[in-house]
Amino acid sequence: MATTTHGSLTVTASGGADERRLVLAGRLDESVGLLSSVAGWGAAVVVLETERITAINSIGIREWMHFVAGLSAGGARIVHERCAEAMIEQMCFIPAVRGAGTVRSFHAPYRCPHCDLEVSALIDVEVHGASLRAMQPPALPCERCERPMVLADVPERIFAFLNGS
Ligand SMILES: [Zn+2]
């Protein structure tokens, strides 16, 4: 496992030529240069884990799109895992943010109407895919009172990225 710094972002890479996992943390902004590392991170499958990305700006997301396209051009199948809420927001507006990749799991804002707990819940697309595509937020159990939580936003704004996937 190797952690490298790319401007405001750190990337921890693990795995090998069959499957490589890249865990990204920090800010995706104008200081971030990921493209130069694409060749070193190539693999049959590249899993991009973004839940620890805290902020994204327009120059950063442009760099990200080139990065994802570069990995695909190198022959990698892209899987997005544990996507940050900020990353999902970008995917809803710009399909190239997801690129040719599939989303396996992502974070969404949830609220418990019983105890008022607010969380960034992790949603598994394989488990909840059908209801997500029907814009029906899964009723996830509250981690405090165990009763069903509700999505704290309009489903169409969050699940739109699944269209065409
Ligand atoms: Zn609760």
Write structural notes for this entry.
This protein is of the alpha/beta class. It has a domain at 2-103: STAS domain (Transcription Regulator spoIIAA). It has helices at residues 58-73, 85-93, 125-133, 155-159, and strands spanning 2-6, 9-15, 19-28, 45-56, 77-81, 102-103, 105-111, 118-124, 150-151. A six-stranded mixed β-sheet has the order 1-2-3-4-5-6. The chain has a three-stranded antiparallel β-sheet with strand order 8-7-9. The mean pLDDT is 94. Residues 112, 114-115, 117, 142, 144-145, 147 line the site of zinc ion. Zinc ion binds at residues 112, 114-115, 117, 142, 144-145, 147.
Mean pLDDT: 94
* Lateral strand order in the biggest sheet: 1-2-3-4-5-6
Q: Can you tell me the CATH architecture of the domain at 2-103?
A: 2-Layer Sandwich
Distance between the termini: 31 Å
User: What is the H-and-E element order?
Assistant: EEEEHEHEEEHEH
Shape: globular
CATH first level of the domain at 2-103: which class?
Alpha Beta
Q: Report the total helices.
A: 4
| Amount of helix | 10-25%
Structural classification: alpha/beta
Poorly predicted residue ranges: none
